[in-house]
Amino acid sequence: MKSGAEPSTPLVRGAGLFDRIDYRRLETPEERDTAYLLRYKAYLHGGLILPSESQRVCDVYDDAPNVWIFGVYVDGELCSSLRIHLLTSDCRMSYSTELYGDVLHGRLDRGEVFVDPARLAADPEKGQRFPELPYLTLRLAYLACDHFNADTGLAMVRPDHQPFYRRVFLHKPIAEPRAFPGWHTMKTSLMASDFRNLREKVLARFPIMRSSAFERRMLFERANQVKASRPVLVSAPLSPDVPAGSMALSAAGSSRQTRRGATSGG
Fold first, then answer.
1. Are strands 21-25 and 172-173 parallel, antiparallel or unpaired?
2. pLDDT tens for residues 152-198?
């Protein structure tokens, strides 16, 4: 389904895929293996890694207690994946704290809460076919900021992707580029956005980031073991409990509410 608005307008970016997208939390070894294979294909295609016999990219942080790994499916096919870390004073496991501990640990000691997306990957062919995928995939991190009441959204970003994060999420670099484990051709910089103070500005520019409390619970509450949620546009304005985000999709299962005319990674 295509949006009736001009597709080049940021406000409608991604809207045409809303009714075809599923977010699925990947939890079993078999489910996560699909994400590891997708990472390998994406990073090899991008020249970030060398070929390996396993044809998988995974690391110790995939099994951390503060991790959620998602697959983004279009018409039932896995197209992209994202890993999300929740960083608090009690649980600090992520590549960001490993590489930028001098920048982050003091802030965590003071009680700040960070949402730290990592391992963004998109199928090379599907990424070409669906240029909205970075918006729709990173929207998960924006929803996590809202669900966990985060102070700051982080992102370790390669240099050529920094303009996207500046434009969409209003991120700014907070540390110099550093080598990333396993990437032999490129360094990453740590970027951050003041989620609480910039949230409304981001949502005004990218209504597709809006969500409902129900969708966020479906995605991030582990007790229910919910595997998937189907995103739909949420009409504005929203109460403080129902954020307007960088890609507003709200999981409403079979009852979907769409709004025409609302709406590339690291």
1. unpaired
2. 999 999 888 999 999 999 999 999 999 888 787 788 999 999 999 99
Identify the residue whose tokens are 């503060």.
Answer: 66
Q: Would you give the end-to-end CA distance of the chain in angstroms?
A: 27
Give domain status of residue 49, yes or no.
yes
Tell me whether residue 252 is in a domain. Answer: no
Q: Is residue 22 part of a domain?
A: yes
Number of H helices, E strands in the chain: 8, 9
Q: How many CB atoms lie within 10 A of CB 174?
A: 16
CA angle at residue 13 from 46 to 237, to 5 degrees?
A: 135
Total number of residues shown for the chain: 266
H or E element in which residue 87 lies: strand 77-87
What pLDDT, in 10s, does the model give residues 238-254? Answer: 333 333 233 323 332 32
pLDDT, tens only, 68-120: 999 999 999 999 999 999 999 999 999 999 999 999 999 999 999 999 999 99
Distance CA 230, CA 24 (A): 9
Cα–Cα distance measured from residue 40 to residue 37, given in angstroms and rounded to the nearest whole number:
5
Q: Give the integer Cα–Cα distance in Å for 209 and 94.
A: 24
> In which domain, by residue range, is 42 found?
10-229
Domain assignment present for residue 145? The answer is yes
CATH number (domain holding residue 33)? 3.40.630.30
Give how many domains the chain has, as a whole number: 1
